[in-house]
Amino acid sequence: MTINIVETETEKKDISKFKIIMKRILGNIRFTRKNIGWWFLGLLLLILFIGAIRTLVIPGSNYMDVLLNIVDWFLLLFGYSLEYIDYRIPIIIRGLGTAAVLSFNISVISVAIGFILAALIAVILVNKGKVYGLKVLAQAYVDFFRSTPLLVQILMVYFGISGISLAIAEAYNIRTLTAIITDMGFSYEVVLGTLALILNTAAYQSEIIRAGILSIPTGQTEAARALGLTQGQTMSYVILPQTFRMVVPPLTNEIINVLLNSSLLSVIGVFELTKRSRSLQSVYFLWEVFFVAAIYYFIIAFSLSKLTKRLEIKLRIPGLGVAID
């Protein structure tokens, strides 16, 4: 009888230890209204990651095949499938999925390269020393690209560079830029469209970074100079690290704006999400194609906003107003 009591108490201790361990591991992983967005994002990224791996392993597969298979398995319980309901649904989802990946890639590349260019422009604009006319050129660049429509800029870059490239090729009997880019395996329209987005977003991001630099208290600059740091060292080691942490919220809006503005690249023939949805609608005559395209845009924008929000909280500077402490 005593042995049974000892075994029972031992089992209770083991169970309690197991509960403590599981609570430590899974304590924060709960499905609540606050973290429903993270559950959605995590599941979405997992499906897309598996789909991306599948495209590398199985030639000819699509990013959305995993999602389509999950939906088919669910419908199979009721004796249906997507192709049975409408054969056009898998085709539309796969086509728009490929286009969504292209829109996402263009947006990320544009924002990343534009951020580097914007940081250089912002440093030039806030520099109080002589920069040999660079400040005038930088300000003119920012004013021009912030004061003209993006659609006009896309057309200007596309037809302008195409015309200049053709004129140079004819004058010097060399290959055109179109042929060079095509031989490198890239799409000429995608490259020039991305360039137009880079030039546009760099102008807007430069103003965001400039405002972030000016928001840093001047006392920090004075303290750094008093310690013997040069102006370049003060900007590199004191001002810019804090600025990049403070400008995360406005840069989030700019990332989403670039993603949505990438739809304008359809005017030069880039088969991004909007162009592909128009193409599919002209073939299958379904207005629902645009609804599916809107869902793709929402998923990408929502995911980016959630990730950058997490980054904002992680990088916030207490006392400087990045987030409520």
What's the architecture of the domain at 108-315 in CATH terms? Answer: Orthogonal Bundle
Radius of gyration: 27 Å
Just give the CATH class of the domain at 108-315: Mainly Alpha
Distance between the termini: 58 Å
Helix count from the secondary structure assignment: 14
Q: Superfamily at the CATH H level of the domain at 108-315? A: MetI-like
Order of helices and strands: HHHHHHHHHHHHHH
Q: Judging from the principal axes of the Cα atoms, what is the shape?
A: flat
Beta strand %: under 5%
The total strand number stands at 0
Average pLDDT works out at 81
Low-confidence stretches: 1-7
**Largest sheet, described in full?**
none
Structural class, by secondary structure, is mainly alpha
Give the helix proportion (percent range). over 70%
Instruction: Indicate the CATH topology of the domain at 108-315.
Output: MetI-like fold
List the helices and strands and how they pair.
Blueprint: H1 2-26, H2 36-57, H3 65-76, H4 82-85, H5 88-126, H6 134-146, H7 150-172, H8 177-183, H9 188-215, H10 218-226, H11 231-246, H12 248-261, H13 273-284, H14 288-315
Helix pairs in contact: 5-6, 5-9, 5-12, 5-13, 5-14, 6-9, 7-9, 9-11, 9-12, 10-11, 12-14, 13-14
